[in-house]
């Protein structure tokens, strides 16, 4: 019984959500504008329910109205399209309005359309939509090839049509991923209280190593020239230091293997077909393994006493850092580039007595 009641409740919620009423309007013909409550079932784009009040409710099909909309600005236009070989009137959501309109058919899989200033409606089929987009590249030579990078997604298509309507002939943003190789020069500062047998005050140890991994970049569609970049890399570092005095010698070694995850927003400046960018973000490093050893020789006249202190320097399992830097993307062709990037990392959760800094040089190539 409880299961039946639960299923009934879920079904009721789905039906209520499908036809949820919202303040809106309908337009009959060119001028008949009527405000009321609009109910839409997005799985059926051919009809809506409209009510002036509780006593007056009516169902309208797309061939009876020219448009309907909501008070939040969303607008749906009635258009005749071909679906499964049959022509029928449906409501299309107006995503971008201007010299070219971008429209969306919901229900049964999203399908996009572009309507030009002559009221010709072009269907954007998934396997052939770039041929339609090419019609709108004549005024911007940069788009002659780059329109092929526009994905069959709402934000990507909106961005393209919006740029066309605003006559902004700029480089088109696109998502990319590929391998990254990084040279890292790291400095580890060791303070007086780093470990018990320390005898030489504060000093710095250096390490140079290579990291390898993958990166991914995606546009932030709501803000021009911005994107978000993520990277995951594997690396190994080795720090060694020899310290000597008349009474004591110390050899310190630290080795570690780690995974590094970097995430940051980026801002891009366009230089002809190439791109200069800056970024500021965060870095999380997970220590896969680490080891340390201190070898000490105490010298008293002709007597030398040797001692070993394995694993005496403790390193945290996780490190959090602030990353910042700049890079330059050199485009080999419209959809492939090589990027050279310089940056720096400042770690925030340094272990007691030990602090880390990294200077980075990276090379990326998108696939």
Would you give an account of this structure?
The protein is mainly beta and 367 residues long. About 2% of the residues have low confidence. The strands form two sheets. Strands 4-3-2-1-5-6-7-8-9-10 form a ten-stranded antiparallel β-sheet. The protein has four helices and 19 strands.
What's the rounded overall pLDDT mean?
86
Quickly count the domains: 2
Overall structural class, as computed from helix and strand content, comes to mainly beta
What integer value in Å does the Rg equal? 31 Å
Can you tell me the CATH architecture of the largest domain?
Beta Barrel
Strand adjacency order, main sheet: 4-3-2-1-5-6-7-8-9-10
* Number of β-strand runs: 19
CATH topology of the largest domain: Porin
Unreliable spans are: 10-18
The N- to C-terminal Cα distance equals 56 Å
List the helices and strands and how they pair.
Elements: H1 2-18, E1 21-28, E2 32-40, E3 47-51, E4 57-61, E5 67-70, E6 75-83, E7 86-96, E8 101-105, E9 111-115, E10 121-124, H2 129-133, H3 143-146, H4 154-166, E11 176-190, E12 203-219, E13 226-244, E14 248-271, E15 274-300, E16 303-310, E17 318-333, E18 336-347, E19 354-365
Antiparallel strand pairs: 1-2, 1-5, 2-3, 3-4, 5-6, 6-7, 7-8, 8-9, 9-10, 11-12, 11-19, 12-13, 13-14, 14-15, 15-16, 15-17, 17-18, 18-19
What is the gist of this entry?
With 367 residues, the chain is mainly beta. It is built from 4 helices and 19 strands.
Q: What features would you highlight for this structure?
A:
eight-stranded antiparallel beta barrel; Porin; 367 residues; 19 strands; ten-stranded antiparallel beta sheet; elongated
